[in-house]
Design brief:
Elements: E1 5-14, E2 19-29, E3 32-44, H1 46-60, E4 66-71, H2 74-89, H3 103-114, E5 117-122, H4 130-150
Parallel strand pairs: 1-4, 4-5
Antiparallel strand pairs: 1-2, 2-3
Helix pairs in contact: 1-3
């Protein structure tokens, strides 16, 4: 693995869904590791948290780089690699002519990706992949801190 590649694992979730949520990201470049997390105490969704994690990770990068971004969300991976250009072309409407959900986050993710050369990978969640498990733990921590801070 090249020293120039930043490997990112992200996760997000809510308990319950919708409900309070959290997101987490682990960024690795060579020997450098950065852990990020956050959350929302109010009502959000799993999908919004799954989208927020890669946005925050990519926005944290200080210069354009090659990124290998790992997510356990097929919604995020398929959305950014397959669906988003069609949505944009159709005025942010789905093929069924409905407004795209989470359009604010999809647009922000597109902008964050544009600065970098991002390759997307789907990984199975809770399958023992260390950085995916860590991203999950960070998402839980983000949710817990958001709830505690709102109390």
């Amino acid at each position: 693995m090249s020293e120039d590649v930043v490997v990112i694992h992200t996760d997000g979730g809510c308990t319950p869904n919708p409900g309070p949520g959290g997101w987490g990201a682990v960024l690795r470049q060579g020997e450098h590791v950065l852990e990020l997390f956050g959350g929302e105490a109010g009502e959000t969704t799993n999908n919004r948290m799954e989208l927020t994690a890669p946005i925050m990770a990519l926005e944290a990068l200080k210069r354009p780089v090659v990124v290998h971004l790992n997510t356990d969300s097929t919604y995020v991976r398929n959305g950014i690699t397959k669906w988003v250009l069609g949505w944009e072309k159709n005025g942010w409407k789905t093929s069924g002519k409905q407004p795209v959900k989470n359009v604010d986050l999809w647009q922000r993710l597109q902008a964050a990706c544009a600065r970098h050369q991002v390759e997307w990978f789907w990984v199975k969640g809770h399958a023992g992949i260390a950085d995916n498990e860590l991203a999950d733990q960070l998402a839980t921590k983000g949710m817990q801190q958001a709830i505690a801070g709102a109390g």
